[in-house]
Amino acid sequence: MPHLVKMDKKYRKKGLTLIGCERQGTSVEKVQAFAEKHDIEFPLTQGTTRPDGGGGLPHMVVFDVEGNCVFSGHPASDECEGAIKDALKAAKGDEDSGSSSGLATRSDLVPERSWTNTDGNKLVASLVSVDGDSGTFRKSNGQTFPYAISKLSDADQKIIQEATAAVAK
Questions:
Q1: Would strands 134-138 and 122-131 be described as parallel, antiparallel, or unpaired?
Q2: Residue 102 lies in a domain
Q3: 115, 145 contact by CB (below 8 A)
Q4: Claim to verify: residue 13 and residue 89 sit in the same structural domain
Q5: Residues 12 and 89 in one domain
Q6: Global model pTM greater than 0.85
Q7: Distance between CA 23 and CA 57 in Å, rounded?
Q8: Number of domains in the chain
Q9: Strongest mean pLDDT among 44-53, 63-72, 90-99, 148-157
Q10: Which of 74, 44, 70 is closest to 57 using CA atoms?
Q11: How does pLDDT run across 125-144, given as a tens digit for each residue?
């Protein structure tokens, strides 16, 4: 697992999204404890099957910007890292050409920044959308969560008002 944590940290800001899949029936509590112990920041899910139906653990599947499987195998292999680099390169190319598809392209209302709530606590995330008084935020690991905009500092609320007004134009 340490190699996946390292890979996540290395490629996250370039647009890679890792999703860990537990496939052996481990309890949610044990999966959460494992994630905390190993500093896993990417999302984890349970009870999945692989698109290629193959076996072997650990196993990684890499998809390109079109959703095609471009690699299926051991995550520590050279081929895996090469497939990731190629997929990120292709996503970057799509982003540069103005395409709305690709791993590195996001349509966030407000890009990732540090937000401060009324208690002075800080959180780094991007603002994805606003629905009434609730905003949907995304952490750098891809995890999204709702948060009441009224609980943010006045300055942060103003940034959100300006961003939503700009989209409404």
A1: antiparallel
A2: no
A3: no
A4: yes
A5: yes
A6: no
A7: 9
A8: 2
A9: 148-157
A10: 74
A11: 999 999 999 999 988 777 88
